[in-house]
């Protein structure tokens, strides 16, 4: 069962992004219809991108296991690099899979490029994730609100970013889904 959750994590994230994007744009559409359409259109690419995050996450767990013997000073930089790469895969590459139609390698390249060339947005997202993680760590019921809040906020920022850069046209507020 846990293997199934790991394999579908990328596709599930794309579905969550697309549902949040519809909410941010104010489009009225059935939740299940949007989720089914997003899953059908992008589950292959999203699964590949999600599986790319698996060895990186495993490397992060391995690095954390060295924390007691090496100390924080020795593992901090590798952990930050691993965290940045995971952040780029999950919050830049997967939304591109949901939003645009490109080959998988190009989605990953574009996501990494956008994330690294817009450090202000990536840094802001990193801060939000750390604060959200702290909120969940100190108040466990926040796990039901914080991830969704961060995702809706990130979808809002990405849509503004895509429109401002000319990647997509602004969608009319009264257009139907």
List its salient traits.
mainly alpha; 8 helices
Describe what you observe in this structure.
Helix 2 packs across helix 3 (31-65), helix 5 (72-99) crosses helix 6 (104-117) and helix 7 runs antiparallel to helix 8 (146-164). The protein has eight helices and no strands. Helix content is 81%, strand content 0%. The chain is globular and about 55 Å long. It has one domain (2-164). The protein has 177 residues and is mainly α.
Mean pLDDT: 87
Structural class: mainly alpha
Per DSSP, what share of the residues sits in E-state strands of 2 or more residues? under 5%
Poorly predicted regions: none
Write the SSE topology.
Blueprint: H1 2-7, H2 9-25, H3 31-65, H4 67-70, H5 72-99, H6 104-117, H7 119-138, H8 146-164
Helix pairs in contact: 2-3, 2-5, 2-8, 3-5, 5-6, 7-8
Short summary:
By secondary structure, the chain is mainly alpha-helical. It is 81% helix and 0% strand.
